[in-house]
Amino acid sequence: MAETCTRKLIVEVCNARNLMPKDGQGTASAFATVDFDGQRRRTKTKLRDLNPEWDEKLEFLVHDTDSMAAETLEISLYNDKKIGKRSTFLGKVRIAGSAFVKSGGETLVYYPLEKRSVFSQIKGELGLKVYYIDEDPPALPAEQKPEEKAPETEENKPAEEAKPEEEKKEEEKKEEPKTESNKEAKKEEEKPSPPPQEENPKKPDEAAPPVKVENLPLVESEKKPSKEEKEKAEIVRRFEVTISDFELRSLTSDRGRSAYDLVDRMPFLYV
Questions:
Q1: Per-residue pLDDT tens digits of the chain, which is 271 residues long
Q2: How far is Cα 23 from Cα 44, in angstroms, rounded to an integer?
Q3: Running DSSP on this structure, what letter comes out for residue 46?
Q4: Are 66 and 56 within 8 A, CB to CB?
Q5: DSSP assignment, residue 51?
Q6: Helix-strand-coil percent breakdown of the chain, rounded to 5?
Q7: How far apart (Å, rounded) are the C-alpha atoms in residues 4 and 64?
């Protein structure tokens, strides 16, 4: 889609000549109001001057460039009521949109002031410069392509990765003792393990000669007991036997009495 341009209408209110005195003192304090496409701008007031000079630039936005020729620019002059007795009309100028020129072709043109009604007393001229400017919208910034990363080389490596050579040497020195200890451990692991011992070792060819055991002297037999000891033993044995017989008799007698220990025997007569 084609991008639409924006257009501005520039109205330079330069000066006025031979205005009608309206303040009751033979002068006028004039200011101008400019209306275009529903927009209004106002100039400053020039105190008590029938030939005022404003040299003010007023800008208006053109909403529809195609219908600009059908629009009308209207400039009206008034006597400021703050200085005079009342705000009185000093004249007006109407310019058709078809008379607008592009920027660069503008010139100062004096337009005679028009009456608002038949009974208005108006005189003088108004000097204006009217032109328009076409402004192209700002071009969108071109899409920035992502920067291609250059291949990493030793020169392009970040500072963190490129360590000075001195630090590398110090790190290698610290790692040396570790590597030596690891080498020693590896060597111990690589040593051949001793062959497993046989469970049944071979008997030597020359067996040791058997030891001859000589007949040891027999241990002396136990001493035979004397006659006195034998007699004492027989007495003890007989005493034990008599005691055991006596105990047996006492036990049997006790069993018989146990049933009648608490009751006396009494005869009964049965009929």
A1: 345 668 999 999 999 999 999 888 889 999 999 999 999 999 999 999 999 999 999 999 999 999 999 999 999 999 988 875 666 899 999 999 999 999 999 999 999 999 988 888 899 999 999 999 998 766 655 555 445 555 555 555 554 454 556 666 666 666 555 555 555 555 566 655 555 555 454 444 455 555 554 554 444 445 566 777 777 777 767 766 565 565 656 655 555 554 455 556 666 666 6
A2: 17
A3: B
A4: no
A5: S
A6: 25, 25, 50
A7: 11
